[in-house]
What we know:
The chain is an alpha/beta fold and 238 residues long. Helices cover 29% and strands 23% of the residues. It has helices at residues 35-46, 72-82, 96-109, 123-135, 149-158, 184-192, and strands spanning 26-30, 50-58, 86-90, 114-116, 139-141, 162-169, 204-210, 221-228, 231-237. Helix 4 links the parallel strand 4 and strand 5 (139-141). The longest helix has 14 residues, at 96-109. The protein is globular and about 45 Å long. The two termini are 24 Å apart.
Amino acid sequence: MKITIDRSPEPRTLxxxxxxTIKDQPFFCSWSGGKDSCLAxxxxxxxxxxxxxxxxxxxxxxxxxxSHNLSKALLEEQARRMGIPxxxxxxxxxxxEAVFLAAIRRFRADGLAVGVFGDIDVDSNLEWVRxxxxxxxxxxxxPLWKKPRAELLAEFIALGFKATVVVTNDSLLPPSFLGxxxxxxxxxxxxxxxxxxxxxxGEYHTVVTGGxxxxxxxxxxxxxxxxxEGYSFLEILD
Length: 238
């Protein structure tokens, strides 16, 4: 996610709200459709939080997600299979923050005072979330924060979630990984390719199509590989 960090000299702590404090709290989840937001949602629910809304930022076309290039229809299908309503907002990178802030302010006005996010250990992402949520009087919760990357990935797979690679950063991971399902074997192949298999630095993105949060698996129909500005994408057919 391309975000602009406020570098103003204000005191900050990089210790997010502990996930156990979400018990009995209604929350929205910042939803990419990929493995990390899915595992964060799972942790939040397991810790007693009450999911009320998924929230996804779309590109300015209003058709595909800003980060993972997933179709709105596919994201809506994920939401249906999990039984959680989903809300969208569309933005360019230039007005991303303003649009995001306006959306979460509406959540706050509707009584959702907690947001769940899937960041693991990139401080700049946490700083941005904390700053924007503070402006909306939202309490951010990061259930995965500072947990070992390899352990989170192993947990995700062991829980039975199914995630497929749909985007690769061509400078970091070959496009031949497009369409691969995240398994221990795929993780080993990624590590052999020289990346941290968690993908926390944007090496690749996934889409989740099944697992313990889903009433039934989604049948992912895929097409050709597409390339744009150093990234490769797996075409997903609706």
